[in-house]
Amino acid sequence: MATDPVKLAADLIRCPSVTPDDAGALALLEERLGEAGFVCTRVNRGCVSNLFCRWRAPVSGPTFGFNGHVDVVPPGDPTVWSADPFGGEIRNGILYGRGACDMKSAVAAFAAAAIDSIGNHRLTGSVVLTITSDEEGNAVDGTAAILDWMDANGERMDFCLVGEPTCVERFGDRIKIGRRGSLTARFTARGVQGHSAYPERARNPVTALAGLVSKLDSEPLDQGTPHFDPSTLAFTAIETGNPASNVIPGCCQAVANIRFNDAHSIDGLRSLLARRADAAAVQAGIRIDVDFDRATDWFLTKPGFLSELVGAAIRAETGVPPELSTSGGTSDARFIKDHCPVVEFGPTGRSMHQTDECVTVDEIHRLKAVYTRILSDALA
After folding, report:
1. Where are the alpha helices (H) located in 137-265, listed in sequence order?
2. Which candidate in 21, 71, 102, 164 is catalytic?
3. Which of 59, 144, 316, 325 lies at 20 to 30 Å from 138 by C-alpha?
4. Bridge partners, residue 299, by sequence
5. Can you list the alpha helix ranges (DSSP code H) found in the chain?
6. 135 is catalytic
7. Residues 55-64: what's their mean pLDDT?
8. Active-site option among 11, 21, 135, 297
9. Residue 59's pLDDT is what?
10. Up-side HSE of residue 122: CA atoms within 13 Å toward CB?
11. pLDDT digits (tens, 9 = 90+) for 213-269
């Protein structure tokens, strides 16, 4: 009997797995995959639970991997949902619940595809599933921990597909072959406080920082690269904490977020921003410090075997020619890129992280069909 990905997705949604708590979701998958013949290993680190599962065919061949996460963002006020955020309700052909789109349906679809594919005894090589409960959070002890464990234990994937929601207008229209990196910078300008009626007796950090903000905002970081749009820098806050209109503050802070392409490295951007801040500080005669939050790097798998394999399966099952995309935020593919070629393909993402997050039942079945074909073509 074929494995029903919709029922499995609904069961996963009923696990209230707000990051980093898997809330029983990994135990559910471990049981189903173990019964099918996968060797399952818990790879826990810190307070995070992770799952590594491998099935080996009698005939040697490549290893195809799927990666996903069962943790979800908080649902917010449940009273504004039309369904229980953790109820897994199906209404009018639509599955509702937190994680329905991002990304429990994809996890259910690739788990169901893997179970049925190995049951047919037609594959060569190996199938690996890596599933974490720490993608929506800090992501320090999630997929990164699984990959560390794999390296230490001689486990490899030759190719990997991440089930993040990638489609925009209709199912099958996007494959993600890359994503930009993210870097957050916090600028702190320290001047000399004074009375606003006597500005000559103060050194105004607001003016100095405003000049730096204007310069950084107006100068492009690059013009784009063959596979990426231009990098962007957006200021998201500038504040002094000063309640008095007649006092020049002694300190002013600004926060900027950069989404950067493969023209840059994290260290290179940090150096660039530090140099710009130093120049502005010298010009204003004050001090400007720059601190950086933890950064996430870009990833890119150039068009080739893997994107062609996934694209052919999508076209065969949907009739839709997928576009190769590098748009959007970050994902765990940024860790996998150093292990093996990786792309992303999953459901339509318009409801992710929203109230009444949902995905159609038909789309979950079609997603399983695409994943099944990918396995068949990769490990024939």
Report:
1. 143-152, 205-218
2. 71
3. 325
4. 179
5. 5-13, 25-36, 105-119, 143-152, 205-218, 266-284, 305-318, 333-336, 361-378
6. yes
7. 93
8. 135
9. 86
10. 12
11. 999 999 999 999 999 999 999 999 999 999 999 999 999 999 999 999 999 999 999
Q: Is the dihedral of CA 339, 342, 346, 348 positive or negative?
A: positive
Share of the chain above pLDDT 70, in %: 100
pTM: 0.91
The C-alpha atoms of residue 304 and residue 292 are separated, in whole angstroms, by 35
In angstroms, rounded to a whole number, what is the distance separating the alpha carbons of residues 281 and 61?
59
Rounded Cα distance, 44 and 358, in Å = 29
Q: Identify the residue whose tokens are 């898997």.
A: 22
Q: How confident is the model at residue 184 (pLDDT cuts 50, 70, 90)?
A: very high
DSSP state of 199: G
For the chain, give the mean pLDDT: 96
pLDDT at 294: 83
Question: Is residue 380 exposed (0-12), middle (13-18) or buried (19+ Cβ within 10 Å)?
Answer: exposed
DSSP secondary structure string, 123-150? --SEEEEEEES-SSS--SSSHHHHHHHH
Mean pLDDT within 64-85: 97
Q: Pull the structure tokens for residue 325.
A: 């995309």
Give the number of other CB atoms < 10 A from CB of residue 19: 21
DSSP labels for 290-353? EEEPPPB--EE--SSHHHHHHHHHHHHHH---PEEE--SS--THHHHTTTS-EEE--SB-TTTT
List, for residues 143-155, the tens digit of each pLDDT value.
999 999 999 999 9
pLDDT bucket at 174, cuts 50 / 70 / 90: very high
Task: Give the per-residue pLDDT at 161.
Answer: 98
Identity of the amino acid at 174: R
Question: How many Cβ atoms are within 10 Å of 64's Cβ, its own excluded?
Answer: 25
Region 4-14: mean pLDDT is 98
| Tokens of residue 293, six digits | 């939050």
CA distance 229 to 380: 36
Q: Give the tokens for residue 370.
A: 């695409």
